[in-house]
Amino acid sequence: MENKVFISHASRDYRDSNGKIIEGNAISQIIKVLDDNNIERWIDESGLVSAKGWCEQLKEAIDDCNIVLFVSSHNANKSDNTANEISYAYEHKKHIIPLRLDCSPYHKAIELNLSRLHYLKFYEDKNKALRNLISTIKDIPTPIILNYNEIHIPLILDEQFINGEKPSWLIKDIFISQSIHKSYNSFKTLLKIYSCSSSDLNSYLEKLLTIEGTLNSDVRRSMIVKIIADLTNKDYKFNRFELIIYYIFLMFLYHYINDHVMAIKIQEKIAGAEFKRTFIERNGDDINDIVDGTVKAALFVGSVAAMLTGKGPLKGPLSRVGVAGLKTNEKIKCVKGQTEIQQVEKDFDALKRLMLSVKFQ
Predict the structure, then answer these.
(1) Contact criterion met (CB below 8 Å) for 166 and 194
(2) At 33, phi and psi to the nearest 5?
(3) What does DSSP assign to residue 129?
(4) What is the CB-side half-sphere exposure of residue 64 using CA atoms within 13 A?
(5) CA-to-CA distance for 6 and 3, rounded, in angstroms?
(6) 28-32, 104-108, 340-344: which has the minimum mean pLDDT?
(7) What is the pTM of this model?
């Protein structure tokens, strides 16, 4: 993916009150020099800001760019809309390049964010400023994008939400993503919804982030290969969801370096993953029955004794509360029952089926 520039500007610096482009305006000169140097750019051509104010389309446009060019001017620095654009870009760690048409102070909402950034002085020497703009953009590392045309993840009908997330959406975001950082975030969410706290998996996800700023493709590939080697040469004791996510991570890494033969082999290992119940899980209901009966019996004896003698930890009003509590049908539980374990197993099998449905083309 090549660098792409979002041009944040005041519409009054670009178009007149009738919507016509102002002759000789600075914005048009900037657009021309970007186009002449084959640098992809995005600018609000349809009047999204003037028509709707700060809107989702502008957020999506900024998300799609890795560079935000802020054309600072008297009009721009009075605009809440441009301030919103720059704040959003700053929060999402975009490369921000201020280009100043005049010496007007920045909007108060973004002054602190921009105060430490070097800016280009269009108002002093526009030709020099435009040359420096192009060289600055070309020096910024291009973001990493995955080859999403080589993988197919089917739509899962009637998929259940797990802790507020649909697993298939997260898998799509991991494999069909515009950057490693987005894949990283989806992996973190996947670990969270399945209550996985593996420090090993988390440490390798952090290593993945170091690749984001690496420009050389050969270096990126060698870094990925090293992570794969580390993951496969050590004897990790993952189980259940951690094991499946470990395999998903390996599939992702192999997919990234276009080794789909190995990705499919990892997929075959997912098919062999089993959900093995522990002794406690197999006998959860019986254990809960025993605990329930024992605790309630002890509570009953203690409460009655306290009522008769006025002594003990359950004396006085607490004794009556203890006896009253026994009248409820609520069962005392200390481990997951069969119904709960069955649901966990269903979630496990659903994640397996999802990953087995992934097709590499």
Answers:
(1) no
(2) -70, -30
(3) H
(4) 12
(5) 10
(6) 340-344
(7) 0.52
